[in-house]
């Protein structure tokens, strides 16, 4: 009887073959797929924020958010998209000499920028859709609070949180590859992403939605006043931290952490473990 899942060695081989395709994607296709992935992740962030913004129990809120947020990666896997964090797995193909490090870096840069475009588009549409008016502006205030927390992380926390996040995201991608049917792929994605959200770890593409959404929300006086009332966040704190500089100060260490998590903690160890099986195929 045939197994309904792929072995770890088969998963690694499939991932490296997929990396070959990513490394040779035409630029326009890569950009469009990156925009789609950024938008899909943003939908997960926007929907999970809406669900939890009035829940005071942090553990319960994160557990609920974790049941919603995985929809972003599911849409990418089933519909298509290039996600920066998952594409960090391409390092295995570089080590296996299937494509050059330069091609990988080019792909990662294009995908990162395209993810940003997609996420910011959704953040803007969410703001103008009126969704953040939920709870008399409470969701807008919560959006500011989330973004401010990310912009004030220390670099060490941001890097370590980024590592932890992308270990789980890349494992989710690989587990989805191991499953051969839709139901298997759904559950393979769900649990690692659920764990990452409950842990509250940092994902650079998710933050491409959360922080711009907070910056846009900070332009709304009602949301700012609500943030002070609900969370004690002052307008001066928002002005000092919730801006382009704050976005960059989060993205640099989080992106670095995501790269380390995907490449050093997942792709390279798996290649070292299974390379003989892959090479002997």
Overall description:
With 281 residues, the protein is mostly helical. The protein has 14 helices and no strands. The chain has helices at 8-23, 27-52, 58-68, 71-79, 84-87, 91-95, 101-129, 134-151, 155-178, 182-199, 204-217, 221-231, 235-241, 244-279. Helix 1 packs across helix 9 (155-178). 52% of the residues are buried. The model has no long low-confidence stretch (mean pLDDT 96).
- Morphology call: globular
Please indicate the percent range of residues in DSSP E strands (runs of 2 or more). under 5%
Q: Compute the gyration radius: what is it?
A: 19 Å
SSE succession: HHHHHHHHHHHHHH
Total count of strands: 0
Give the overall pLDDT as a whole number.
96
Keywords:
281 residues, globular, mainly alpha, 14 helices
Topology:
Layout: H1 8-23, H2 27-52, H3 58-68, H4 71-79, H5 84-87, H6 91-95, H7 101-129, H8 134-151, H9 155-178, H10 182-199, H11 204-217, H12 221-231, H13 235-241, H14 244-279
Offer a concise description of the structure:
It contains 14 helices and no strands. With 281 residues, it is mostly helical.
